[in-house]
Design brief:
- The structure is a homotetramer.
- The first copy, chain A, has helices at about 15-25, 35-40, 65-85, 100-110, 125-135, 140-145, 165-175, and strands spanning about 5-10, 30-35, 55, 60-65, 90-95, 115-120, 155-160.
- The first copy, chain A, is of the alpha/beta class.
- Chain A has a 5-stranded parallel beta sheet, sandwiched between helices. Chain A has a two-stranded antiparallel sheet with strand order 3-4.
- In chain A, helix 1 crosses helix 7 and helix 3 (about 65-85) crosses helix 4 (about 100-110).
Chain lengths: ~180, ~180, ~180, ~180
């Protein structure tokens, strides 16, 4: 059966977005790409820096509130529906709740054929890339590097510490049926 | 019954995005916002400037191919599913097919309670704003200004030619139940 | 003698950037465009939200420190040198110090032939456009709308409250020799 | 004598921008950063894709015309003036003319104390990163990888093929006096 979704999970600055763009380039079919960044962009500006929405603390800690969670749940339902309607979909996400986040996706996705991919990057290297990109709160990369993988089960894992995005993408693409 | 979706239709540079952000600010509930721009961003880069994807000609004409249409149909299903799952959703779109585009949405949205909004802007003014924003192919605004409204039926229309985005948004918000 | 620089001064969300892009489009010669935004982008990230750099308070108030001022002075010298070297240059700036800011520019620019343009926008309208653009701290537009013009002397003034960017640009271009 | 400018030269997607942001973070003084991207952003939109301006061919070849060159020369004079006025300045550039480009800078910069840095990246790796970033014409990275270094003399060279931006930045910072 054909893979219907690819879900990449990894901490901030672990290299997910670059892998997604490479996957879209190397996979022969056209895949849609969405993720936590495009979801946050869809929120009202007033939910940024709101307790009901999403707050990025000065140390890089991220906390989300009730409105964020409710809208996120509906967004996940929508993503699942796109896949059921025939679009092949790549999601990049940050499982702030570790295995609990994965279970939420699994409950939503039901019978869909999903390839689960862990994107690792050594904490110190991810923190350096956070400095290099310059558009993120310093500290997020280190805080998220390990905790987002806690208890999560993958079909394969890639590690961007010493491996280029395109090489990681090819390894993932080789597992897409 | 509560309005579940707001769909704004208008030509390029008619002022849809500004109205969407104002709507998200003035509506008391948090609404998610998606649109043709966020959909195009989700496509593989290789579908940009591809006959199977979306092509922006030098004169501002836009043409879309089979892959674009198939993914767009699935994306519309996903948006409908988000609304059914309880998220209130604002869509801004460019009905290149006029009433045909509206019928595609209606077929997808079924029983959902939708507020249909036409966003008008005099062709010459929209063309000037296209120059001012600087990030679009010149000519799109004028080519799309009228044709996207052809045969489309609205609950209300706003005109940004002489009316600010925030004022348009308040008029729309007053119709949301 | 040919105009060597055009300096636009106006509060946040008064419409300066749109006028600049229109000026670049309608002026027959190619003009370079710089401004307070491109200067801030050139600063180290660590000067954003630093007392030595630039701080955007939650109410829209902007304060700048010693490092910001020193680098800004050198940047202004550089801009003047570009104009003396033959580039025609458009600057858009926010004179937080009113006439004092203009005097700093005048001291730097010396004998250069400058067209001074005030960009006005009614405070309430600018505040609405601040909501519509969605990427600025709410409150800046209203706080800056009048104070940036305090004591400043112009060759001409435009008002974007009821006039499109392109129309304003044409009025300015008509004054360029 | 204190280093007044750092000039990084390397092909597209060799990692210059990331190194610049890391340099701004690790250098104790505040340094301004400009480069070929910010210069191109300052050009009128009509010089993009114009023979007089800058043309990006479908294969990644870049060609520039008379207007581009004239404005670039004035821009370089301006950058030199900022450094003479006391701002410490980092430039990232792509020496399409190899040693000729360096000589143009040297002629402009005169007596300024400049640290010349070559940024290398293996062609194949740079091409992969070009896919991963997704916002550049495919082919530029490979075409520029070697030619931009032709005959150029450096104070030090870094290679991002296997070395992180932050580590490269620290090596450069150690050479700043």
């Amino acid at each position: 059966m054909a893979t219907q979704m690819i879900i990449l999970n990894g901490g901030s600055s672990s290299g997910k977005s670059g892998i997604v763009r490479c996957l879209q380039a190397v996979l022969p079919d056209p895949w849609l790409a969405f993720g936590c960044d495009s979801f946050v962009d869809a929120l009202p500006a007033k939910l940024h820096a709101s307790d009901e929405g999403i707050v990025f603390a000065a140390d890089g800690a991220v906390s989300v509130g009730a409105d964020f969670r409710a809208l996120q749940t509906a967004w996940m339902e929508g993503v699942a529906a796109m896949a059921r309607a025939g679009a092949r979909v790549i999601i990049d996400d940050v499982f702030l709740g570790g295995s609990g986040s994965q279970q939420s996706w699994q409950k939503t996705l039901g019978e869909l054929d999903v390839l689960w991919v862990g994107v690792r990057c050594e904490s110190e290297v991810a923190a350096g890339r956070e400095v290099a990109r310059g558009d993120r709160v310093q500290g997020m990369a280190a805080l998220q590097a390990d905790v987002v993988h806690d208890g999560v089960v993958y079909d394969l894992e890639v590690d961007t510490t010493h491996t280029e995005s395109l090489v990681c993408a090819r390894a993932i693409a080789a597992r897409v049926s």
